[in-house]
Amino acid sequence: MRIPRQTVVAAGTIVAAALLGSSSMPAATSSPSSDVAVSVAPEQLSVVGLPCFPSTLNLTMTNTGSQDRYADLTLEPTGPLQLSRTLFSSWLPAVDPDQPVSAPVEVRVPRDTKPGAYKIDVEVDRNRLTVPVTVEPLPSKGPGDNLALGEQATASSTHGNFTLCGAVDGDKDPEHWDTLTGWNDGTRAVFPDTYDVALSAPATVNRVELYTLDSVKYPARLNGLRDWDVQAKVGGAWQTVAQVRGNTLGHVTTTFDPVQAEAVRILCLDGNDHTYSRIVELEVYGT
Amino acid sequence: MPTTRRNFLTVSGAAAALALSGSLPEIKTAAAGWTGRVDRRDPFTLGVASGDPLPDAVVIWTRLAPDPLAPFGGMDRRPVEVQWQVAEDERFHRIVRSGTARTGPEASHSVHVDVRGLRPWRQYWYRFRVNGQLSPVGRTKTAPAYDAVVPELSLAFASCQAWWEGWYTAYADMAKRDHDVVFFLGDYIYEFGIDRGIRPHSNEPYITQQTVTLDEYRQRYAAYKMDPDLQDAHARAPWIVTLDDHEVVDNWADEAHPSAPPAQFRVRRANAFRAYWEHMPLRLAQLPKGPDMQLYRRIRYGRLAEFNVLDTRQYRSDQAYGDGTKAPGPETKDPARTITGDAQEKWLLDGWAASQTRWNVLAHQTAIARLDTKDGPEVLVPMDTWDGYEASRNRILGGAVQRKVRNLVSIAGDLHRSVASDLKLDFDDPASATVGAEFVGTSITSGIDGQDLDPGGATLLRENAHMKFGNFQRGYVSCSVTPQRWISDYRVVDKVSVQGGTVSTRAKLLVEDGRPGIAEVQK
C-alpha cells in the first residue's frame, strides 16, 4: 500500500508582496510593504494522522531590500495541526545575488483528526501568505497492510544525522540513505541497539520485512545489519519470536508463529562493520 | 566578503536602534512610571548577570522570558521598559545609579545597561524591575583604578558546559567562593543535536535538535541559562566572556565549515553571534554587525594585571591537513596561516609593547602549548589548537619575548581536561627558553565524569616535557593573583552525572613574579 507523502507541487516561490494585491486576501492590502520575500515549498501540504509520519514544509526568506536585517517569520496553524516550530528568525543579508535563507517545519496531526482542509498562516512584517493543508484519511491497516507504516518508533538512540521515523516512512530504497530515510543508532561500536514500533492497536502478526543499508556505495555485506532478534511485545513484555544471524543481504523476510503483539522490536546485536545499526525500513504484517 | 549591491552599512536600523536604547545608561529616577500590562508570570527565569568591568563601569544584564523556551521567551512583540538599580549595599538603601532601559523582541527582550559613574574596585548590587516584579539581586565589582596598586585579585575561569552531560556542580562551588571576576573561555552552549543525556529533559527537542536559525540559538541559550547554579555563578561576580566553536558550530574557522558554503555559513554565524550577544553581559561595542563581532578586547586590573581577551575563531585560517590530529608539517608551519588574524595579532603585540602591568594574561579559547598525543617518537598534535598554527604561535610567543612582556600567563579551555604547561619559545627544543605559563581549565560538564588520569592524559604527560600537570575530571580553576605570585587552584568534581557531587582541590600550581613558567605543583 502506498500513501501520498505529500501532494507534490512544484516548489515555486511566492513573494509575499506579490500576493498583497490579490482580492482573495483583502486584509493584506493595508499591510506595509516588506523587503522580505517569503516562499514555502510545497505550496500546499498533505498530512496524515500517523505519529511517525510528519510532512515537511520548507520556509524561505530572502532579503530584497538594500540593508542587511533580521526578520521573524511566524506560523499560525488552524485546527489540529501541530507544528515543530511556530517561529523562524534569521539574519538576512542584502547581497547580490539574493541569498535565500531556509528552515524546515514538520507538520503533524493527531490520529483521530477528521480529514479535510486546514491551513497555516505564514507572516513576516505583517504580510501574510496562507498554506493550504489537507489532512488525508488514515491508510488502511488491515490484513496484508504494513502495520508499522508511520507508527510511533522509539530507539535506544538515534545518530544526529538521521531521524527516528526514517525506518517507518514508507521509503525502503537504500539509495535514499543520505536523505534521512533510514534509522542509524547513535552509539558507535556499542551493541545491542533497539528499534521499536508501537502498533496502533494490538494485532496478530507473523512476518517482518527488514531492509538494512544495501546501496551501491554501502553494500549490506559490509555495512548492513548482521545479527538481530525480532521481538514482539505481548502483555507488556518483550518475547523473542525469531532470530537472524550472519546476514549479508539488504532485504530479509522473517516469518514466525502468529502472535498478538502491541509492538515489534528489532534487537540489533551486530553490524557487518561492527559500528552502527542501520535500518532503511521496517515493515510488519499479520495474517 | 560578498559584494553588496546596496547601501551596506550595518545591521538593520530597527535592531540597532533597539539595542542602542537598551544599552545606553539612562540615568532617570526609578520613579519613572511603569504603565504596562499586568502579567503575573516571573519574567526573570534566566537570572541576572554583569560583565566587562571597568574602573568606573560595568554592564548589567537580564532577559525577560516568562516562558523561556517558547517563541520570544513567552513575551509579546511590543517594546518593554525595564527599570534597573545599582546600589552600594545588598538591601538597596544606598542606590547610586538607576534608570530605565527599553527592549523588545528584536533583542530577545534582553537588557544590557552599561552602568557608568561607578567607583573603582568596589562591590555593587543590582536588580531589575518590570511590571512590579523584581529580579534576583546580582553582585558585581568594578575594576581597580588604572594605576592602582592591587594587593590581590581573585579570579575564576571556566569553559565547555555541555548541559546534557551533567550538573553544574562546579558553578555552585564557584558561586560560594569570593571571586572578583570570572572568565568564560568558550563553549557556553553546544549547537549540535544530541540523543540522550544525564539530565531530565535531555531528549526534548530544544536539546536534541541542532541550532541553525536565530530562534533556535536563542532557545538553546534559554535552555542552558535556566540552570540555577549557572545563574548563581553569574549573579555573584562579573563575567568576562569570549566564545569558541560551539557557540556557532563544531570547529568552524572564519567563514569555513563543511556544513555549508561560505555565503550560507555567514548567515548561521550571524544568527549565532546575535543570540550570543543577547545572552551575554557585553557592551554595545561587541554587538555583532551581521556575521562580524568585535570580541577581542583588553581589560586592565590596575597595575596588577592586564587581560587580553582573544577571539581565535573569527579570523583563523582553516585547519591544516583537514583538521583532526596530525603530524606537524609545512602547512602547520606556514607563516601565511594565522589563528588570530593579522589585525588581532598586531593589536596584541602593540598592547604588550605598551603594557605596564605585573601580569600579562591571555584569556582565550584553546591550548597554546604543544600537545603530542602519540606515544613514542612520532608526533601527532591537534590541528584545531595553536599546534595547527605554529607560525602564528611563534610570532605571539616570540613577540612577547621581544617586547619583554612581564609574567606571561595563558588561560584557556576547549580540551575538556586540565593541562598546565610551560610555554616554550620552541616546542621542538626542550632546552629552549620558557616564556610563560599556561593553565588550561577542564570542562564544567563536557565529557561527563571523567577520571583522574586517563590513558590519553598519561600519554600527554609522557610525551610533553613542558606539561606539568594533567587531570581528566570536570571542574574549573580558581586563581589568586598578587604582585609576587599567581596560584591556580584546580577545582574538580567527583561526579557531574549526579546532583550534589563533591568539589575539591586537585592541585595548586604556582607561578612566581619574574620567573617564567610553572614554579611548583602541589598535589
UniProtKB/TrEMBL annotation, chain A:
PROSITE patterns: FA58C_3. Gene3D superfamilies: Galactose-binding domain-like. Residues 1-27 form the signal peptide. Keywords: Signal. This is F5/8 type C domain-containing protein. The keyword Calcium does not apply. Residues 136-287 form the F5/8 type C domain.
TrEMBL record, chain B:
SUPFAM superfamilies: Metallo-dependent phosphatases. Residues 46-142 form the Phospholipase D N-terminal domain. Signal peptide: none annotated. Pfam families: PhoD, PhoD_N. Residues 155-489 form the PhoD-like phosphatase metallophosphatase domain. InterPro entries: Metallo-depent_PP-like, PhoD-like_MPP, PhoD-like_sf, PhoD_N, Phospholipid_Metab_Enz, TAT_signal. This is Alkaline phosphatase. It comes from Kribbella sindirgiensis.
